[in-house]
Amino acid sequence: MTRIYSMVFSLVILLGFSNFTVAQESKVQVLNAGQVAKLDLNGKWSGKRMQYTADKKSIAETFQYEFDLKQEGDIVTGTSTIISASGDFADMKLEGVLIGNKLHFREFEVANAIRPQGKIWCFKSGELSFAKDGDNLKLTGITASYMEIYNYPCSGGITDLTKVDNSANATTLAAITPTATVLEESKINIAAYPNPFVDNADITYNLNSEAKVKVDIFDLQGKLITNLFEGNQNAGNYKLNFDAKSVSTGSGIYIVKMTVNSDVYSNQIVQMR
Fold this sequence. Notes:
Blueprint: E1 12-14, E2 21-23, E3 28-30, H1 33-37, E4 43-52, E5 59-72, E6 75-83, E7 89-99, E8 102-114, E9 123-133, E10 136-146, E11 157-163, H2 170-174, E12 191-193, E13 200-207, E14 211-219, E15 224-233, E16 236-243, E17 253-260, E18 263-270
Antiparallel strand pairs: 1-2, 3-9, 4-5, 4-11, 5-6, 6-7, 7-8, 8-9, 9-10, 10-11, 12-13, 13-16, 14-15, 14-17, 17-18
């Protein structure tokens, strides 16, 4: 296990229940899907994992957090390492898939760990955004966490990682000119209720104008589970139902991928088992 201590943590994260804003002194450029497609994600990422309090209104504890990733096309595998201030740690296997400009991931197996007495290590999962921060490439976002069995939710938290070696991405990063100082919120809000769910979840979204829409459900291996809708829709609010009772995938973690004309949006939903 390699422990790389990041000395750079310039993002100041303002907390909220369902969204967040990242502000910082230097300019940040959130990457689009085309820019993300040119990146090499292979290798070490290092930074912080900030764990929420039970009410999700503040940070209870900050951990050192690392990814060691292997990328094959849109599929990402690898390991994560989380280390507490007291030296307790867990090495976990992870898997993920790139959809649009987001990395959807989950940890699914503890490979090696020292567990705090009377506590467990929760599996982290969620979607992470890519951003250029000066010469650095970052992965950041609010990410949920779940118990090792049944997918019962833990408190969740914030993941903020910086790629350790950007040599393979130098040309791509150099071509990106920072134009924003905050992470922009999605133009279309995809939500699911309940989330986590048991058998069924309602997927809701809004359209500001008439568009060609496709809504699919994928697993974290990039496999298409089902198509919920495909066709033209007028401006307005919509609701689709995802029935997971007949789905045989083992993880219980799914990605809602919504294509609106040529733009891609996504959100992660979790089934308790």
